[in-house]
Write a structure and sequence with these properties.
Structural class: mainly alpha
Largest sheet: none
Order of helices and strands: HHHHHHHHHHHHHHHHHH
Radius of gyration: 23 Å
Length: about 475
């Protein structure tokens, strides 16, 4: 069930209507939980069993962990939780990738080995809810208090607005909101519905209608296109993935707010970042902070010298890349970001007293350079395979060697206008959140903008593409 579908809008209206009936708070939460299971079952009903398994395992383990009288028992329970959750994730997401590469390795040694490859369907959103439940168990292991209500915990795991593509919410952020009845104020309801419109516009119009066809033309013909087309395709994808994923997050935050629940921001002007540590404070914030708190710091962070810090950065970003999918392109994407962070950390001490770095023009140029290097990494993220990614980058810098170049039909002006506007909007609002930007506008102007967005969505609704991050 896609946010950008009529089915979801009907579903959302029904759930919202039931929620605001004069019912007991426990019943309201139970109705939300039931709706969340129905929402997830719309993709593949049997996979609801996986949600139940993760919920039951981590609820039981966290409860036992809180009662454990020594550290050894707590560690054993944590290992069980990690084994179950990561074991399921590894099987559904990485088993085929590992087997494929093992077969290639064996065959490269002139050993004939052709096993029957398993047909494994990836449960939608498994990476998101796995990390969410794991954060709960790890927090309890580190001394946090387990939830007293199984209903609250089950709703935390499955809350439908953010279930399949985040934001990845911490239990310490969500569970306290379940303790007292929630009801959106008129201002919250209005802003929540506004966020739904903005998110759908980002996804359906900007990502799907304007940029996705350009990206597909270029990346589907990347070995036969010209240098300019490849550059434009790369920039187009940077916009597509932002509008697609930020659009989902905006819809999720807006939908939750309509029920009175507050979810954390997941994006904050990432393409206006000055440097790569700044980028990861702004892009997919719920994942980057998860990796920082539960992986990077657990590995030692920056506490044990430069070598250990660089190692920890690289491991964290490699696993961050692998979290996105079982493909070498995602690993290279993660490795590139790890390399960027290592170089930035190595250079930073040499420029800590440089006054010229405070100049606005210098910051703007650094933001442009950061964005450009991020775009190069996006090529490996989007290309169908590593060979295509390297070929595409080669053509961008040295031109096309083949005699025939596939003629593409898109207008370069579309990419220039959309991506240029995106970068400038984020640059001028890099210190402000969207709500702060909107509050500066007169009410009539903002109402007019929303009316235009709604009219555009009604007249050109797009083709209801799935969100990119559903595959992760």
């Amino acid at each position: 069930m896609l946010f950008n579908s009529l089915t979801f809008l009907i579903f959302f209206a029904i759930v919202l209507g039931l929620y605001y009936l004069p019912l007991n708070w426990q019943i309201k939460k139970f109705n939300l939980l039931t709706a969340s299971y129905l929402f997830y079952a719309a993709w593949n009903p049997p996979f609801v069993l996986l949600l139940w398994l993760s919920t039951l395992v981590d609820w039981f383990i966290a409860s036992k962990m809180a009662l454990a009288d020594n550290q050894r028992k707590k560690k054993l329970l944590l290992i069980i939780s990690l084994t179950v959750n990561l074991g399921l994730l590894a099987y559904f997401k990485y088993a085929t990738f590992v087997l494929d590469n093992f077969v290639l390795l064996i065959n490269s040694l002139n050993i004939s080995y052709h096993p029957v490859l398993p047909s494994i369907i990836l449960p939608v959103g498994i990476s998101f809810y796995t990390f969410q439940t794991l954060s709960y168990t790890i927090d309890v292991y580190r001394g946090g208090k387990p939830s007293k209500s199984f209903l609250d915990f089950a709703l935390f795991v499955t809350f439908f607005p953010q279930l399949v593509a985040g934001p990845i919410v911490r239990s310490s952020y969500f569970l306290p909101q379940c303790e007292t009845p929630k009801q959106a104020t008129s201002q919250q309801l209005g802003w929540g519905l506004s966020l739904l419109i903005i998110g759908l516009f980002q996804k359906s119009i900007l990502a799907d209608s304007l940029l996705a066809p350009i990206v597909e033309q270029v990346f589907n013909n990347a070995t036969q296109t010209g240098a300019l087309d490849n550059w434009l395709g790369m920039f187009a994808f940077s916009g597509q993935i932002f509008f697609d994923f930020a659009g989902y997050s905006t819809c999720a935050i807006g939908a939750a707010l309509c029920f009175g629940f507050i979810l954390p921001d997941n994006f904050h002007a990432p393409y206006a970042a000055i440097g790569f540590s700044d980028f990861w404070r702004r892009w997919h914030i719920s994942l980057s902070t998860w990796l920082r708190d539960y992986l990077y710091i657990s590995l030692g962070g920056n506490r044990n010298g430069s070598y250990q810090t660089y190692r920890n950065l690289l491991i964290t970003m490699l696993l961050g890349g692998l979290w996105h999918g079982a493909a070498w392109g995602f690993l290279i994407w993660g490795a590139l970001h790890g390399f960027y962070l290592m170089v930035e950390r190595a250079l930073k001490p040499h420029f800590k007293d440089a006054k010229w770095l405070e100049l606005t023009s210098v910051k703007f140029l650094l933001a442009l350079m950061t964005y450009l290097l991020i775009c190069f990494a996006w090529v490996f993220f989007r290309a169908p395979d590593v060979f295509t990614a390297f070929t595409m980058l080669k053509v961008m810098f040295v031109g096309q060697a083949t005699a025939q170049i596939v003629p593409l039909t898109f207008q370069p002006l579309t990419v220039i206008l959309v991506i240029g506007s995106l970068f400038l909007f984020q640059w001028f609002n890099r210190e402000h959140h969207l709500e702060q930007v909107v509050q500066k506008l007169p009410a009539k102007i903002w109402a007019g903008i929303l009316a235009i967005l709604m009219l555009w969505l009604l007249l050109a609704p797009g083709d209801q593409r799935a969100f990119i991050y559903f595959q992760f």
